Amino acid sequence: MMVTSRRHLAHVADRVLWGIAALIVAIPLAAIMLATGRASDVLPASQPDLAATAALLGYQAGESQQLVQDWRRASRRARAVMERVFYG
The whole model's pTM is what? Predict the structure, then answer.
C-alpha cells in the first residue's frame, strides 16, 4: 500500500489547477484574436470588440462585463497557483 503525503497531493492538485488556469486564460486569448484580428493578452478596451469576444465565448448579448469579471477571477486564481508552484 502506497502512502501519499499531503505535500505530494498538494503538488499534484496545484499542477492540475495550473493546467486548468492555463486553459481558462488561453481560450479567451484565442477568442480575442478571432474577434479583433489582433493578438493580445488583455481583454479588448472597446465595447464592440469586447462584446464580440464575449459572444465567441458563449456569453449572451449584454454580458460582456461578466466576461471581464470571470477573466479577473481566473487570473487571480492562476496567479495564486503560479506563486505556490514557483515560489513555494
Answer: 0.74
